[in-house]
Amino acid sequence: MNPLKPIVLAAALLFSQGAFAHSDDYLDTQTAPHGGQLRMVGQYHFELVVKAGEVSVYVTDHGGNKIATDGARGTATLLSSKGKASVKLAPAGDNRMKGAGKFELAPDMKVVVSLALAGEPAQQGRFTPMQKTQSAPAAMHSH
């Protein structure tokens, strides 16, 4: 037996679990701290919370530690069959970005969040906030 095979296999398992741990499907099974939808965006996790007329994005590292949003800027673009809206996001204390705008919540809503933390380039996360609870069980029962 090749002595490298167990090492290669162990490394493959280790790295595949790391990649899977932050997939959108996996994150949709996690309970987000503010009840929103989680996405991995670069080195951060963004949690999107959408309420009637209000958008909030919470920023943490992969360990769930809060990342300060002082000096950050961003936008949330909301797209659905009911229309398109753009909401400017501004720091709202701690690790939160917040904005308000005119838009209707819709089951088919997609949200693109573009966020630039202070001194960093903008990064984008894509969300389906009204579908997160339906997609996880459907994936589990697709066998």
What do these coordinates show?
The protein is 22% helix and 38% strand. The protein contains three helices and eight strands. The chain has helices spanning 4-21, 24-28, 132-140, and strands at residues 37-41, 44-51, 54-61, 73-80, 83-91, 96-100, 110-116, 123-127. It has an eight-stranded antiparallel beta sheet with strand order 1-2-3-6-5-4-7-8.
Question: What low-confidence regions span 5 or more consecutive residues with pLDDT below 50?
Answer: 8-21, 134-143
The fraction of residues in strands falls at: 35-45%
Class per helix and strand makeup:
alpha+beta
Form type: globular
Beta strand count: 8
**What profile does the largest beta sheet have?**
8 strands, antiparallel
Helicity, in percent? 10-25%
On the 0-100 scale, what is the average pLDDT?
83
Number of helices: 3
Q: Span from first to last CA?
A: 35 Å
Major sheet strand order: 1-2-3-6-5-4-7-8
- What would you report as the Rg, rounded to the nearest angstrom? 18 Å
SSE sequence, one letter per element? HHEEEEEEEEH
Protein topology:
Elements: H1 4-21, H2 24-28, E1 37-41, E2 44-51, E3 54-61, E4 73-80, E5 83-91, E6 96-100, E7 110-116, E8 123-127, H3 132-140
Antiparallel strand pairs: 1-2, 2-3, 3-6, 4-5, 4-7, 5-6, 7-8
Features:
3 helices, disordered C terminus, 143 residues, eight-stranded antiparallel beta sheet, globular, alpha+beta
In short:
The chain is α+β, with helices and mostly antiparallel strands. About 20% of the residues lie in helices and about 40% in strands.
